[in-house]
Amino acid sequence: MVQDALDFYNPDKPDRNWERMQSRIEYLESERSNALEEVDQVFNYIEEINEELSELKLSIN
After folding, report:
1. What is the pTM of this model?
2. Widest CA span of the chain, in angstroms?
3. How confident is the chain (61 residues) per 10-residue block, as mean pLDDT?
């Protein structure tokens, strides 16, 4: 069984499936990066709101 798999393995021959997936992989990596940036922006915004709320609550007391 292992020998059958090794018979098909040819490191000198490019893998067409891998080549086809490259554009999709690049797209998904870009989307992930963009989404992570958006998450960071939201966390920063929440932190700003929390700081302002704390300041307002302290000024009331």
Report:
1. 0.62
2. 78
3. 63 76 93 98 98 93 68
Looking at the structure of the chain, the number of domains it has is 1
Q: Which pair of structure tokens corresponds to residue 38?
A: 């958006």
* Distance of alpha carbon 57 from alpha carbon 61, whole angstroms: 7
Per-residue tokens: 28 = 């998904």
> DSSP 3-state assignment of 9?
coil
Domain that includes residue 29, residue range: 2-60
CA distance 10 to 2: 14
In which residue are the tokens 């302290």 written? 58
- b/e code 25-52 from CB counts within 10 Å (16+ = b): eeeeeeeeeeeeeeeeeeeeeeeeeeee
